[in-house]
User: What shape does this take?
Amino acid sequence: MSIPTVAIVGRPNVGKSTLFNRILKKKLAVVEDVPGVTRDRNYASAVYEGRRFTVIDTGGFEPDKGRAAVIGPEAGLSEASLHEAGLPAQMREQTELAVLEADIIIFMADAREGLSAADRNVAEVLRKSGKPVVYCVNKVDGPKLEEEIYDFYSLGAGEIFAVSALHGPGFTELMDRVLELLPPETEEKEGEAPVSNIAIIGRPNVGKSTLLNALTGEKRAVTSPVPGTTVDPVDTVVKFYGKTYNFVDTAGFRSRGKITSGIEKYSVIRAIKAVERCDAAILLVDSFEGVTEQDKKIGGIAHEEGKGIIIALNKWDLLEKGGKTFDDYVKKVREEMKYLDYAPVVAISALTKQRIGKLYELVDEVVEQGKKRVSTPELNGILDSAVRAQAPGMFKGRRIKFYFGTQVGISPPTFVFFVNRPEGVHFSYLRYLENRLRERHSFAGNPVRIFLKKRKREDGRERTPGY
Assistant: This one.
């Protein structure tokens, strides 16, 4: 499944991040309080009026003043054209990202500051890109400022949306236009064999490409490589024992301080999008170096996206071993990445192909477990047993009551429990319910999402407890 992308582009301080946040309010938030998952966000998966897309806030990128922008030939732009347009380094990189990655671009300007030369330069570059551009002028918070938008028609826009990203006016009209231009999600063609999309993720030089070669190098495998550019993920279709896999070798994730060039930031976004469209991810960790802070962040990305995860300890053949080496190592991994306690761990050597067959087995299991459904009667039996064994406690002097639950999604397994006071349920109790679910259905390698919803009687009074 390929999800379209919308990029928000404009000068600094025009309100791009405010619009970004307003768009994301349309997405249901997952209740979670697990250390190590938080990451800097200038991109996110969004849902608006039932349409899914990735939104990018280009304002979050720091400039690399010593490096010129690099534009791919598919964009029809060159470094020279950007230089002639007079764009400063930061705008060059923001524009580069939008041109290379986005299906639709929202160009944002500031009504209070009026039309500037920088606005004209950015608009000219976007016009040359050939991508659909939706023009909006932000901070239109009153009738006087509405008159300021007419100057922006000189940019050549057929329609300009006056919005207040902070307060909301004009936002619905803007998003309606974006949805009109949004291309559909691409799905597998009818009649095609099911494909498991597996992303290989990890820090640079951890052995991702070597692992891809090992996975596709078996004599029994029939491969069909489809290369991208040096910064793009590489999709490789493999048939292994009658099953079809699409492995994605992503660009290496680096720490924020080491991501300096615009094109490298673009490659990170591409890698993150590869995670978004995968069924499961293989998180490759260097056995010599152990779990690093960057490994935790990369694992957090896959966890937040609700993807199945397998932790593969690479270069295991070069590690000195004792009787309990693997068990001790797994214990350290669990301590460092507690939020991935559901992920299976396997020791491999991408170079010697050690345990590559085991990796295929785990991939199959994780993908299958992510698609598992629990019937409503069985789920409520589990809930009933869990509540009877350990009550959820009190909130503001009133007993918390769970009524019933239902599964609302797969990949990841997602459940909604109806309760009288959802705000009073502690996170630790949600973890308790998750553990009880996993006792019956392991959902191995997959995060479990639990949402709470307030349940009342039709007359507005609280229902009597179901348990």
Residues 5-181 form a domain with the Rossmann fold fold (CATH 3.40.50.300). The chain has three domains: 5-181, 195-370, 376-454. The chain has a mean pLDDT of 78.
